[in-house]
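[User] Could I get a sequence and structure tokens?

[Assistant]
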Amino acid sequence: MQFYDVAKILTTHGLAGELKIALITDFPQERFVAGNKLSLKNDTDRTLTVKTARPFKQFWLVQFTEINTIEVAKQLMGKILVVSELNQHQLPTGTYYYRDILGCRVLDNLTGNDLGQITGIEAPGANDVWEVTEDSGNEYLLPYIDEVVKQVDITNKRVYVELLEGLRDAD
């Protein structure tokens, strides 16, 4: 079974076993809903059930049903929380997990020319920005907006685009 990283446990918070975590997921409101099941990386047989969760500055505070003392919570510091593929939510149409986008080939929607491969993703605000590396090694940024991204084919790892003027140095 496949597991995906969702958060890193940083430290304890209070005496009742609450944990401060750094997110590695795009969907904390869905991932940390009471009753959701998470596991520990490298110990996926150990399941933790979310009891409560709330944002706290740039982190989240999470209480698990199975963790109710600071002593037990301290043992989890530095560990990575993962979710199994069976416990992942179905995403709305037009929304993708980063792992699905990374590695996709970028093709010109009109000519079919290969424009490179998606090698990184940034989330600076209103929309994601995909980092594309051409076969020559040159890089450029591709905004994930309807005017540019025309079709995403996750099955075949292809993204069809219509580049706006100035997005690539070659333009």
Observations:
- The mean pLDDT is 89.
- The longest strand covers residues 43-56.
- Helices lie at 28-31, 70-74, 98-101.
